[in-house]
């Protein structure tokens, strides 16, 4: 989600239900295998037993917004459960949120010049970019 934070219009476009819903049902558009899917979720979330916060994504205490937990719940529904979200592949997450093609590079044996060049190219054409240390990868995607 942080990769698309620079483009609030992309984040906003994911939510079909944009206002508080008294029934507690929200619709989110995600992309599965590049195709848009409409996912509906309710606003019931698991809470920590000793903390006054949600078990997974937290909500904004200042304004009470629930967009992050609703989005996370929709993705968990597509994947099967919340635990399927742990240690995922970053390029899959980017494609799920944008629907755009994703390019990935293994940087394990790459030079600093190669990495800088790929990062610069993505920035020049306004692609969203993410990098991961664990998988030693880098991905970019055309902004939808």
Largest sheet features: 3 strands, antiparallel
Mean pLDDT: 78
Radius of gyration: 17 Å
Strand content: 15-25%
Q: How many E-type strands? A: 5
Q: What is the number of domains?
A: 2
Could you say which overall geometry the principal axes of the C-alpha atoms support? elongated
Helix percent band? 25-40%
How far from one another are the termini?
14 Å
Structural class: alpha+beta
Oligomer: single chain
What is the topology, as strand order, of the major beta sheet? 3-5-4
Poorly predicted runs are none
The DSSP helix count reads: 4
Order of helices and strands: HEEHHEHEE
Write the layout of secondary structure elements.
Blueprint (H helix, E strand, L loop, with lengths): L7 H7 L10 E8 L2 E8 L24 H13 L10 H9 L3 E5 L5 H13 L2 E6 L4 E6 L2
Antiparallel strand pairs: 1-2, 3-5, 4-5
Top keywords for this entry?
2 domains, alpha+beta, 23% strand, 5 strands, 144 residues, 29% helix, elongated, 3-stranded antiparallel β-sheet
């Amino acid at each position: 989600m942080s990769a698309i934070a620079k483009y609030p219009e992309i984040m906003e476009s994911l939510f079909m239900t944009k206002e508080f819903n008294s029934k507690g049902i929200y619709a989110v558009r995600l992309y599965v295998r590049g195709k848009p899917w409409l996912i509906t979720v309710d606003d019931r979330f698991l809470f920590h037993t000793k903390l006054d916060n949600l078990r997974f994504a937290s909500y904004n205490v200042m304004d009470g917004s629930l967009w992050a937990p609703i989005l996370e719940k929709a993705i968990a529904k597509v994947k099967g459960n919340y635990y399927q979200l742990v240690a995922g592949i970053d390029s899959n997450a980017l494609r799920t949120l944008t629907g755009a093609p994703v390019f990935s590079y293994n940087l394990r044996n790459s030079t600093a010049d190669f990495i800088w060049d790929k990062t610069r190219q993505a920035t020049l054409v306004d692609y969203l970019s993410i990098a991961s240390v664990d998988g030693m990868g880098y991905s970019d995607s055309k902004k939808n």
